[in-house]
Design brief:
The complex is a heterodimer of chains A (241) and B (234).
Chain A (H helix, E strand, L loop, with lengths): L1 H22 L22 H11 L1 E7 L4 E10 L2 E4 L1 H4 L4 E5 L5 E2 L1 E6 L6 E5 L19 E6 L7 E9 L13 E3 L11 E3 L5 E8 L6 E5 H9 L5 E2 L7
Chain B lengths: L20 H6 L26 H142 L6 H31 L3
Helix pairs in contact in B: 2-3
Classes of the chains: A alpha+beta (241), B mainly alpha (234).
Chain lengths: 241, 234
């Protein structure tokens, strides 16, 4: 039987071999286009982006009273709203707002609150940028940037870290305040304390003489005050109106 | 077995007994054997060596393996030949394709090098632009600070203007009222100089009261002016 199958077996092998040869893939034409793997997305350094954004949302506040002229800082929190300190706008005969690039903004109305050293100022025209308010408090030890116009001069950044959240009546409030190691000067009042993402975590309102640390109203106090409609006291000018 | 050798001919013989072996070898077609005519019994015909049945079963299948082998061999040779030809064609095509790919790879490499150079150039330009932007932003910040300082000076000047305007108004009011006071006092002084025994003392006393009121108002205006001046302005 094996002898009778040898012949057909050879033929079958040959046919299989021929079939395999026929099954070999032939090369196809050379592709005319090669997929591009080059990315053209613009690269921007993150720190520069945060810095640019910080510049855009920090304004300079000028307050002329009946007797003197004071300057402070402010933080744009809405399309036409900024937050600053109550003591920055106190007794204002005239308020002036200047942006980092020299634009002057007209003020509509300013209101303060008794909850903390905070005030909101409504502007007559919308602004292109507003700060992002961080949800939740800054953790102790996190890096921060304090932005403002110290001494009424040019916009400046002051780095630091979060220290703690002390509660002390000497700070002029019953709420906890944010203490950071950043160096601040008169003129920084009302300026933002930003985290590494550029989100608002506090509003500077004082400097602690004994330590040199900056004191800021925590962002949760700010959001609670805004949500509760706490900014309900119009700023009284030095003329009493 | 042999009959007559003289009767050999090239034509087939129908007389089977006379047919020789040579004839059958030349002419394989053998007519069917006729039955022997009746006659005296002769010697029996020689027995032909007819194959037996088992011999048929052995010899007949032996041809088919060879035929099959030849056919398969032909098929195999043909298939191998076709396979070789096809393989050669494929190899040539692969070689041509590989050459084209090699050329394209070279072209792509050149393009990649050019792209890298372009990217490096753009990166340098971007860095230069970033530096320019940073310098411009720094300059803008400085100018904004100067503008703000000028604005402060303007506000201070406006404050001083308002202050001096207020002070001047207060001073004018005080001066006016002091002038009234002096006028009233002068009038009273004249009355007192010209007064005699017949003068109306009640009238003089009334005028003196008026002088006191006017001068009191004047002194008050001076106090207001002093207060404004002591505030020293912005």
């Amino acid at each position: 039987v094996s002898g009778r199958l040898r012949g057909p077996g050879l033929a079958a092998v040959a046919l299989v071999a021929a079939s395999m040869a026929a099954c070999v893939d032939r090369p196809e034409g050379v592709p005319t286009a090669v997929a591009s793997t080059t990315t053209t997305e613009p690269v921007e350094l993150r720190s520069e982006s945060v810095e640019r954004r910080a510049r855009q949302i920090t304004v300079r506040v000028r307050n002329r009273t009946c007797t003197d002229l004071g300057t402070g800082s402010g933080t744009i929190v809405g399309p036409s709203t900024l937050v600053t300190n109550a003591h920055v706008v106190e007794g204002a005969l005239e308020l002036g707002i200047d942006t980092w690039d020299g634009r002057s903004l007209a003020v509509d109305v300013a209101r303060t609150t008794t909850i903390a050293d905070l005030a909101v100022v409504d502007l007559t025209e919308p602004l292109p940028e507003a700060v992002t308010i961080r949800e939740g408090r800054l953790e102790v030890g996190e890096p921060v940037q304090v932005v403002g116009y110290p001494g009424g001069g040019a916009l400046a950044f002051s780095p630091g870290t979060a220290v703690d959240y002390p509660v002390d009546a000497d700070f002029g409030t019953t709420e906890a305040v944010l203490r950071v190691t950043a160096t601040v000067l008169p003129g920084n009042s009302g300026g933002p304390v930003l985290d590494s993402e550029g989100e608002l975590v506090g509003v500077v309102f004082a400097v602690e003489i004994s330590t040199g640390h900056a004191l800021a109203v925590p962002v949760d106090v700010l959001t609670q005050t805004i949500a509760s409609g706490g900014f309900d006291e119009p700023v009284e000018s030095c003329l009493g109106s | 077995m042999a009959h007559d050798d003289d009767t050999r001919t090239d034509l087939p013989r129908v007389d089977l007994p006379r047919a020789g072996i040579d004839d059958t070898q030349r002419f394989p077609v053998v007519p069917p054997r006729r039955p022997d005519p009746p006659g005296p019994p002769g010697p029996p015909p020689p027995a032909s060596p007819a194959p037996t049945a088992p011999a048929d079963r052995v010899h007949a299948p032996r041809r088919w393996p060879w035929i099959t082998a030849v056919v398969l061999l032909v098929l195999t040779v043909g298939a191998l030949g076709w396979y070789g030809f096809d393989t050669r064609e494929g190899a040539d095509q692969w070689e041509r394709t590989a050459r084209r790919w090699q050329d394209r790879a070279g072209s792509q490499e050149d393009r990649a090098v050019a792209s890298e150079r372009a990217v490096a150039d753009l990166s340098r330009k971007l860095e230069a632009s970033e530096a320019d932007v940073a310098a411009l932003e720094s300059r803008v910040t400085e100018l904004a600070a100067e503008k703000a300082a000028v604005g402060d000076q303007r506000e201070l000047a406006e404050g001083e203007r308002d202050f001096f305007r207020e002070v001047s108004e207060l001073a004018a009011d005080a001066a006016n009222q002091l002038s009234n006071c002096v006028s009233e006092q002068s009038y009273l002084y004249g009355l007192l100089i010209d007064a005699g025994p017949s003068s109306d003392l009640n009238r003089i006393a009334g005028i003196a009261d008026t002088v006191d009121e006017v001068c009191t108002d004047a002194y008050a205006a001076v106090d207001v002016l002093d207060a404004a001046l002591s505030a020293s302005g912005p």
